[in-house]
Amino acid sequence: MEKRPMGASGLTVSALGLGCMGMSEFYGPGDEQESIATIHRAIELGINFLDTADIYGPYKNEELVGKAIRGRRDQVILATKFGIVRDPRNPGNRGFNGRPEYARSSCENSLRRLGVETIDLYYLHRVDPDTPIEETVGAMAQLVKEGKVRYVGLSEAGPQTLRRAARTHPIAALQTEYSLWTRDPENEILATCRELHIGFVAYSPLGRGFLTGRIRSADNLAPDDFRRRNPRFQGENLQKNLDLVRRIEELAEARRCTPAQLALAWVLAQGKDVVPIPGTKRRKTLEENAVAVDVKLTSDELRQIQEAMPRGAAAGLRYDEPMMKAVGR
């Protein structure tokens, strides 16, 4: 498996990571045994970059990942996050906390759940509008000094916040949604990351599974699947987006690969500083995704993909309105 650097930090990870969120919730019921087997298979394939967060579950996903890497800690680069707070009585209600004391307590709790002594890459999951980013990152820097964290990252931060954070402590990576149908980072954030020598981690590089071509209607989703509430999976938006995916399917057929492999190959082709972390909870899908690193797109193929799904073509917001207010701050 090809390796890619996280900017100028010194951290190097597999070109393709594994998003573990869906193993615990959001995408219908999970199977712990299959999820752990999927993580083990990822390691066998050379995919060493595992992504989780304290709110996934909540907390259950970190525990699952910790169980999966027991005895394999030296084979993985472990990333987790803090900063989104869910109401235990109503997990759908969310707040944000970037206060220094919360950063410390969250880190210590994540270390315990994961069963490790150090987190390789620790992200602020969302920027807390009520806490200066300098205070949050300053607390994360102290965790680095204490050996509890190796590298600091941010998720869904805006360009100016990223600049302020980088002046406080080196930022190894920014994680933001990026795919053929979510190209917002191309507006400014990718250029900012490159200017500051910060690696870019692309989550949902398959458009929450839509770019695989396997979702044709909401009926394909489990009753508790959060995508049912996502604007791009509803009504007229869904039908318009299906037309876009059909174009990707045609190009994938011509390339003799799957739509998922084509979509991942496109993200990989956006720069050696871009690392997509497609999520899956099944070995079969993982193995299919892993092949994408060998799909080298020509300039002509990249042009055809651009014509088939131009920037801004997707219908609907990528999140509902309340969640959109939490990105790009």
Helices and strands, with pairings:
Blueprint: E1 3-5, E2 12-14, E3 18-19, H1 32-44, E4 49-51, H2 60-69, E5 77-82, E6 84-87, E7 90-96, H3 100-114, E8 119-124, H4 133-145, E9 149-155, H5 159-168, E10 173-177, H6 189-196, E11 199-203, H7 235-255, H8 259-268, E12 274-276, H9 283-290, H10 299-308, H11 321-324
Account of the 3D structure:
- With 329 residues, the protein is of the alpha/beta class.
- The protein has one domain: NADP-dependent oxidoreductase domain (TIM Barrel, Alpha-Beta Barrel).
- Helix content is 37%, strand content 16%.
- It is built from eleven helices and twelve strands.
- Helix 6 (189-196) links the parallel strand 10 (173-177) and strand 11.
- The longest helix is centred in the last third of the chain and has 21 residues, at 235-255.
- It is globular and about 50 Å long.
Produce a short descriptive summary.
The chain is of the alpha/beta class and 329 residues long.
